[in-house]
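#struct-help
A.M.: can someone run this one for me? Single chain, 416 residues.
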Amino acid sequence: MTNSQLKRVVVTGLGAITPIGNTLADYWEGLLSGKSGVAEITHFDPSQHTCRIAAEVKGFDPHEYLDRKEAKRMDRFCQFSVSASLQALADSKLVINDLNADEVGVIIGTGIGGIKVLEDQQTIYLNRGPSRCSPFMIPMMIGNMASGLTAIQTGAKGPSNCTVTACASGSNAIGDAFRLIQQGYAKAMICGGSEAAVTPLSLAGFASARALSNRNDDPQRASRPFDKDRDGFVMGEGAGILMLEELEQALERGARIYGEIVGYAMTCDAYHITAPVPDGRGATRAMELALKDGNISPEEVTYINAHGTSTSANDVTETKAIKKALGDRAYQIAVSSTKSMTGHLLGGSGGIEAVATVMAIADEKIPPTLNLDNPDPECDLDYVPYKSRSLNINVALSNSFGFGGHNVTLAFKKYH
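D.P.: on it. Structure tokens below:
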């Protein structure tokens, strides 16, 4: 399709279930106030683990959105995705009915899926035998159920998919949904990412890979992106969902528009299963291609929501990539990592971070990076330490990178 034939795509609804708030309003207020969601793990006894902290979702009641029978048959990551999707749908005020259901789709990414169910059922299998395993084990465990169950709950019968690209999953889901509307295959898409992997086995696996912070005695200061004293990331959980909509339809129904999504790019390092390529060329190219896709110059970019994991491998590499992609402009751009507050939601991170990026544009406020006491000398950009900042934002980027070398950049713009 030619550029003149591509549809413009806007954001008309947002939903969030996060470690610092279970509504959009609470999540955004938590980000701006510098609230940390990191604490000692409560989902299980972590005493045998070297890492005993995580950013858990607190006070979440799935029965606010689902009846008890439905909730019982969902893994926590699906409960999160359905709940945040229903929030986003309600926020958009789009009514899905027989007339438009075929034009509304769902793409929700997850990195790990229903691992809690898998762990629980393995225990039942070993202790009580195969006949006692739940008949719902497989549909509760598989990653595509975040999209499938959301479609069932909302009645969306259009394009449906699940992206699984590790920590880039949520951003890939949003980008793919953008493409479907842009090219005319859907009028609206419910999209984002969800994860609920704070479990004994997940924690043990990441700890064995030496990826996690062991700052157990000071959990709220454990996630410290771009700080020279960082010692690993902090696991988080939750879901972030966007309602994307074709501009013409949104205008026709008088929808509130938070912002416009104008660019999307994905690349692969093709380098290592967990480490990014040291010079950041894959991430650089993702940003460059997203800017090109949105017809954006570096001078227009005001804010970047960084992947910013609080690991030595990511933070320096991402800083290099930002400087290569944006040149001298990089030093005039505000860059922050909201993972300093929410922890790392793995496949859900791109979802809640896209929500934060869109809200930064709509509210003209940039969330801070917590715990940046001693910046790494190789991390020399403006990371908005500790305090949020008011700023008119025209264009903002959201970066997500995942194991396997996946790199994704989304470009959002103020709607004019």
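A.M.: thanks! The chain has two domains: 10-252, 265-405.
D.P.: also worth noting: The first strand starts at residue 9 and ends at 17.
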